[in-house]
């Protein structure tokens, strides 16, 4: 209800009427015999919790100053907010800010609205302070004073020490978006958000969907066709019988032309699909045999169904006639694997349950060899390749242990690990590794995206958010005053010097809520493994969208891009130039980076890196727009919210004055609320900087939203796992 603008800039009359009927019903259910409501009942009726703005609206709605609102007063005020002209709404906004109020007692507060006709600095400061509070923005009092001063100096045209209505109107005219939002913002503060309109035509039947997913659909068609062919051949063979029946390679393939045909980036989706198909076919297969045994039991009369299922029967099939028993065991293992693979298990802090039950594939293969006399023919080649890959991987993992040389505990329980880099370790931006830390769990390996650039020679960075048992244990382990760990072989000289420089800088960032520690903890890594983000360098216009910790793969990519475009200088003549290492792998003409965070503290994870990227681009290309950053803070009141108008104006004015954002400290202004994807992608399309490819890392729900908009604009969409 708070600050959520309805889906468009204009509300239909039918929607307004429906909402007013809802307000009337709420009022009637709460009002007493006198048919009036007080402040607390007003908050309950409109489901409003915020104190300051609820009291301001209540005071303005209470036209007779009685301390209560009648239904007539409420509907009259709401009608003005929804159907009044621009001046009516602007005057209402002015009265919200002009909050000199004395006189009548409402509960324990005194709120009889006596407008002074002007806004003084103290009034403005109070309102902006509440705006910051409701936006979950924590700024020191000095910054609040700076915001107040910036807005007050801009609006107080005659330097009289107060802002009149005409001065506020003149200042707002310099912000066209704010004036446009006045047509909806006053009502949208109270009006509940409308559900998004859905297209009548299913997305999967659109021409755009089939074009963007042609590789995936071709693979699915081929897989389904092959299964149908094998089923038909099996049915023909059984027709004459008396019984009834029914990693690294991917990384390498991504660098070949096959990647343009096969949807290698969706291997996890296909893995899940194949698992579901196997389970369904196994259930059909088992059901057919149970039905057949039931028929035989009725015909025989000497053996019951349980005997057919639970005792070995010569001639039934399998090793020693154990087809029934091994089949039931297989069905139970498959069902267990499916149950513990569900998102509710994997994403609720029980990843270990998923991991260990998935290892039952070893027993499944063993039982399949016992169950089917011809299974070994299908299993021999892929089984040998699988075993060879596992043996080589294990040998590589345990060949030489690495060390975690530095740990930074960041806000929101994010652990930043700095690991010494193996001498011959080669990877691409956006790749991931499997990490094992014996001090946390001896036999558990977990995948994490590398957040450092390949050009960073001596260390690897991993940013790990605490979401499950293992990641929480990792964070808590390094929270201890001193994590025990024997010192290993000495570090290299360059790494020791880099550690010393880094440690010397700890005091500089102590205010960011970080905890730094130098250490020497043994660990192992397996990888690297490729991801869809490898395509970024062969894109023309790349749009990188990270939600929360989903920035991790893009941190590596952005660093690598700037390394390749780094300016070089001649030591003798001091002539400088941008080397721009654009080889055959890099065809980028433009990069738009979008980072969406819930609140202010989440930006602290990578703010130093983004600041460095901004500075490098400013040095290499003054005024250049090769890399554009867009920051969004979803907890902040959006510009469509009446309560946020003054705050957003103040933030814009101060950012223009200081050339930096008050929330992050970047030159890029942090936008409140969620991105308007139609406007964002519309702007990208207008730039015409080449073929657009969108890369996303974040929640599946947001991925679906962005995918739909990409299909609308004809952009290719790739989802990265973090």
Strand tally: 18
Ends distance: 32 Å
The 3D shape can be described as: globular
* Percent range for β-strand residues: 5-15%
For the residues shown, what is the average pLDDT?
76
Structural class: alpha/beta
Please tell me how large the radius of gyration is. 32 Å
Question: Biggest sheet: strands, sense, closure?
Answer: 6 strands, antiparallel
Q: How many alpha or pi helices?
A: 27
Strand order of the largest sheet: 8-7-10-5-6-9
Detail the poorly predicted runs: 1-11, 101-113, 192-199, 240-246, 483-488, 502-512
How helix-rich are the residues, as a percent range? 40-55%
What can you tell me about this protein's structure?
The protein is 47% helix and 13% strand. With 722 residues, the protein is an alpha/beta fold. The strands form five sheets. A six-stranded antiparallel β-sheet has the order 8-7-10-5-6-9, sandwiched between helices. It has a six-stranded parallel β-sheet with strand order 16-15-14-11-17-18, sandwiched between helices. A two-stranded antiparallel sheet has the order 1-2. A hairpin with a 3-residue loop joins strand 5 (402-410) and strand 6 (414-420). Residues 1-11, 101-113, 192-199, 240-246, 483-488 and 502-512 have low confidence and may be disordered.
């Amino acid at each position: 209800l708070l600050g959520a603008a309805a889906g468009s800039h204009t509300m239909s009359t039918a929607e307004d009427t429906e909402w007013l009927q809802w307000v009337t019903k709420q009022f009637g259910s709460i009002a007493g015999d006198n048919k009036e409501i007080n402040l607390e009942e007003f908050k309950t009726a409109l489901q409003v919790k915020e104190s300051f703005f609820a009291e301001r609206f209540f005071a303005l709605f209470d036209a007779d100053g009685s301390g209560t609102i009648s239904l007539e007063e409420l509907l009259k005020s709401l009608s003005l907010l929804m159907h009044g002209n621009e001046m009516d709404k602007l005057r209402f906004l002015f009265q919200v800010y002009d909050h000199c109020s004395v006189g009548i007692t409402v509960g324990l507060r005194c709120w009889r609205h006596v407008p002074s006709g002007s806004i003084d600095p103290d009034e403005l400061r109070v309102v902006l302070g509440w705006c910051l509070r409701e936006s979950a923005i924590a700024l020191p009092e000095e910054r609040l004073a700076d915001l107040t001063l910036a807005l007050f100096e801009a609006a107080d045209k005659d330097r009289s020490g107060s802002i009149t209505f005409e001065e506020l109107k003149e200042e707002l005219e310099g912000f066209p978006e704010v004036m446009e939002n006045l047509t909806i913002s006053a009502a949208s503060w109270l009006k509940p958000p409308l559900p998004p309109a859905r297209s009548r035509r299913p997305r999967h039947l659109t021409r755009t969907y089939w074009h963007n997913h042609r590789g995936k659909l071709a693979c699915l068609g081929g897989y389904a066709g092959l299964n149908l062919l094998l089923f038909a051949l099996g049915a023909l063979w059984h027709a004459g019988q008396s019984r009834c029946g029914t990693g690294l390679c991917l990384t390498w393939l991504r660098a070949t032309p096959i990647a343009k045909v096969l949807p290698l980036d969706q291997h996890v989706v296909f893995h899940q699909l194949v698992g579901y198909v196997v389970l369904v076919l196994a259930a059909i297969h088992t059901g057919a045999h149970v039905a057949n045994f039931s028929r035989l039991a009725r015909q025989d009369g000497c053996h019951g169904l349980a005997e057919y299922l639970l005792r070995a029967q010569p001639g039934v099939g399998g090793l020693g006639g154990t087809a029934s028993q091994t089949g039931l065991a297989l069905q139970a293992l498959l069902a267990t694997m499916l149950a513990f693979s569900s998102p509710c298990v994997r994403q609720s802090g029980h990843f270990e349950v998923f991991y260990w039950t998935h290892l039952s594939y070893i027993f499944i293969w063993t039982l399949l060899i016992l169950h089917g006399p011809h299974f070994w023919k299908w299993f021999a080649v892929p089984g040998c390749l699988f075993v060879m890959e596992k043996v080589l991987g294990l040998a590589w993992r345990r060949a030489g242990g690495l060390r975690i040389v530095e740990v930074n505990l960041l806000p929101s329980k994010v652990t930043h690990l700095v690991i010494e880099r193996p001498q011959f370790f080669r990877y691409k931006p956006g790749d991931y590794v499997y990490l094992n830390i014996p001090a946390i769990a001896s036999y558990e390996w977990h995948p994490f995206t590398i957040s450092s650039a390949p050009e960073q020679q001596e260390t690897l960075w991993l940013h790990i958010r605490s979401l499950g048992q293992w990641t929480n244990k990792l964070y808590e382990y390094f929270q201890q005053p001193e994590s025990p760990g024997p010192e290993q072989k000495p570090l290299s000289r360059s790494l020791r010097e880099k550690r010393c420089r880094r440690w010397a800088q700890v005091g500089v960032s102590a205010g960011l809520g970080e905890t730094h520690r130098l250490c020497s903890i043994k660990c192992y890594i397996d990888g690297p493994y490729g991801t869809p983000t490898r395509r970024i360098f062969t894109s023309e216009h790349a749009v990188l969208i990270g939600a929360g910790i989903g920035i991790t793969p893009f941190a590596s990519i952005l660093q690598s891009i700037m390394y390749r475009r780094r300016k070089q200088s001649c030591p003798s003549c001091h002539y400088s130039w941008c080397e721009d290492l654009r080889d055959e792998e890099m065809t980028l003409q433009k990069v738009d980076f979008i980072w969406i965070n819930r609140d202010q503290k989440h930006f602290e994870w990578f703010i130093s890196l983004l600041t460095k990227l901004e500075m490098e681009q400013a040095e290499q290309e003054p005024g250049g727009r090769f890399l554009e950053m867009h920051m969004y803070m979803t907890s902040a009141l959006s510009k469509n919210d009446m309560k946020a108008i003054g705050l957003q104006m103040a933030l814009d004015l101060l950012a223009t004055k200081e050339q930096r954002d008050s929330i992050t400290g970047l030159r890029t202004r942090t936008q409140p609320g969620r991105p308007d994807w139609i406007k964002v992608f519309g702007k990208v399309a207008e730039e015409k900087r080449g073929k657009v490819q969108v890369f996303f890392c974040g929640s599946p729900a947001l991925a679906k939203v962005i995918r739909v908009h990409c299909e609308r604009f004809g952009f290719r969409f790739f989802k990265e796992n973090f």
